[in-house]
UniProtKB/TrEMBL annotation:
Gene name in the database record: ppx
Protein name from the UniProt record: Exopolyphosphatase
Keyword annotations of the record: Hydrolase
Molecular function as annotated in GO: exopolyphosphatase activity
Protein origin, superkingdom: Bacteria
Length: 508
């Protein structure tokens, strides 16, 4: 059966990129091809904002090379969008006509609002942030948005980007101290015009290649243990550390710096200056990287247009359903395990043996539904595979630390395995957090045992304390002997952590 494919060509001021998405078995589109060309069209805009013929030739040549790929994949509906370099060109009509005549593509020039809006859509549909400031610094423009309760409130597009800032303020490959002072003064003057930015104290969410490179440099610098940069968090000190690192090496070393694309070596410092000043202006300590950007925003709009729903109701729920289809999760069983885990936890809370916040309950519910996910690969070592799959897969709506929490709880086998799994990430958590996640893991394991035959027979769970003994009364609608056997076998993990003997009474 032929797979459904969808393609977007993003014509930026610095790079031109072709991305092909293929529909997988879960019904979602995932990136299957990503082809990039460093065209630097912004360099071909003259003082009168005319894109010179040389630049048009570069554009056509690049699109023709992409055309070979799209024809090979037999793609028909290809979205081809252009941003600042073409938008700022006064000879737009002749550029559009040349693309139409010379290639298979029809180019659409995005307005400032469209470019900013697509970035905002990408962020709210793929990250956990309900409110924040986004910044997408391209080669020739910088889009900034403020969203609150997942709704776009303000946007602004500045007619400068990393490439044009480099052209305007930096004569050599890297800025001198004097050039940095002039650049910082300019950025302050520009961004201070937006009254809605000052003192927002919200996360700054970076979009685009420069933001991604900054995150990658930091990950390499600190030997970050997780793969992937989407939803990666940096503090203001981290951003300063990267800034200092970039300015401490000469250009030849900069080009070889791990995490930095060689073609961005001469524009990364101006871009990081943008992030530095915006964090100061917003008064935030949080910088988040969204690997999803303009292309994804275009994609979300296109694929949801029939539903009149460009913003997903719940990002994590969308991600869970994708996981469920990808790994063959039995949803009825998963929800039943989650319900049993919630019932046990609430009973323990009432006795003062557990104290959970709203976030803990959300994590408990998700971890319970994903428990034993690794059996998709191998039932004998399912716990190990569960931790690896959840720890190393990007899950939209979960920050990296949250992802590890879910992986730890959903893969719980015993306290010793838990300690081995958390070993690399131990400094991310304090002792109280680790004790709580281990306890919740034991609760989930017990809840899973209560549905050992996947018949969903448990109806109610009640708990009472007799001296040092905890007695669970479990009402079932069918014979419970297989569940009873598993519970008696697994309850020791919860007993060890609560330091209490546990008895189970089953009845109809």
């Amino acid at each position: 059966m032929e797979q459904e494919k969808y393609a977007i060509i993003d014509i930026g001021s610095n790079t031109i990129r072709l991305v092909i998405y293929t529909r997988d078995k879960s019904g979602r589109f995932t990136e299957s091809e990503n082809v990039k060309a460093v065209a630097r069209l912004r360099n071909y805009l003259n003082e009168d904002n005319v894109l010179k013929q040389e630049g048009i030739d570069v554009l056509i040549k690049t699109l023709k090379s992409f055309q070979e790929v799209t024809r090979h994949h037999q793609l028909k509906d290809i979205k081809c969008v252009a941003t600042a370099a073409v938008r700022q060109a006064v000879n737009q009509d002749s550029i559009l006509a040349a693309v139409e005549k010379e290639t298979d593509f029809t180019m659409r020039i995005l307005s400032e609002f469209e470019e900013a809006n697509y970035g905002y859509l990408a962020v709210v549909n793929s990250t956990p942030f309900a409110s924040g400031i986004t910044v997408d610094i391209g080669g020739g423009s910088t889009e900034v948005t403020y969203f609150h309760n997942r709704q776009l409130i303000f946007f602004y597009s500045f007619p400068f980007g990393a490439l044009s800032l480099k052209q305007q303020f930096v004569e050599g490959n890297t800025p001198t101290k004097g050039e940095l002072r002039e650049l910082r003064s300019f950025l302050k003057e520009q961004f201070d015009q937006l009254e809605w930015l000052a003192d927002k104290r919200l996360p700054l969410i970076g979009i685009g290649g420069s933001a991604r490179n900054m995150a990658q440099i930091h990950q390499e610098h600190i030997e970050y243990p997780l793969s992937g940069v989407h939803q990666y968090m940096m503090s203001r000190d981290d951003v300063e550390e990267v800034s200092d690192l970039l300015k401490s090496v000469d250009f030849s070393e900069l080009q070889r710096l791990e995490g930095l694309s060689k073609d961005r070596a001469d524009i990364i410092i101006p871009a990081v200056e943008v992030f530095r000043y915006l964090m100061e202006l917003i008064d935030t300590k949080q910088f988040a990287l969204s690997r999803k950007g303009l292309r994804d925003g275009v994609f979300y709009e296109e694929t949801t247009k029939d539903f009149d729903l460009s913003v997903f109701p719940n990002v994590v729920e969308e991600s869970f359903h994708e996981l469920a289809i990808d790994y063959g999760i039995n949803l009825t069983h998963a929800f039943h395990v989650a319900n049993s885990a919630l019932l046990i936890s609430k009973e323990l809370e009432e006795l003062g043996l557990l104290s959970l916040e709203e976030l803990d309950y959300k994590r408990l519910k998700l971890s319970s539904a994903l428990y034993n996910l690794g059996s998709y690969i191998d039932s004998e070592s399912s716990h190990q595979h569960t931790f690896y799959l959840l720890g190393n897969r990007t899950i939209d709506g979960l920050l990296h630390k949250d992802r590890i929490v879910i992986a730890l709880m959903a893969s719980f086998k015993n306290k010793e395995v838990f300690k081995r799994n958390v070993n690399v990430y131990e400094e991310w958590f304090n002792k109280e957090e680790l004790a709580k996640y281990s306890l919740l893991g034991a609760i989930i394991k017990l809840a899973y045992s209560l549905n050992a035959t996947k018949r969903d027979i448990v109806e109610t769970i009640e708990l009472e304390e007799n001296e040092d003994k905890l007695v669970f009364s479990v009402q079932c609608r069918e014979d419970w002997k297989p569940e009873q056997y598993q519970v008696e076998k697994q309850k020791k993990h919860l007993e060890k952590q609560l330091k209490k003997t546990i008895d189970f009474k089953f009845y109809k």
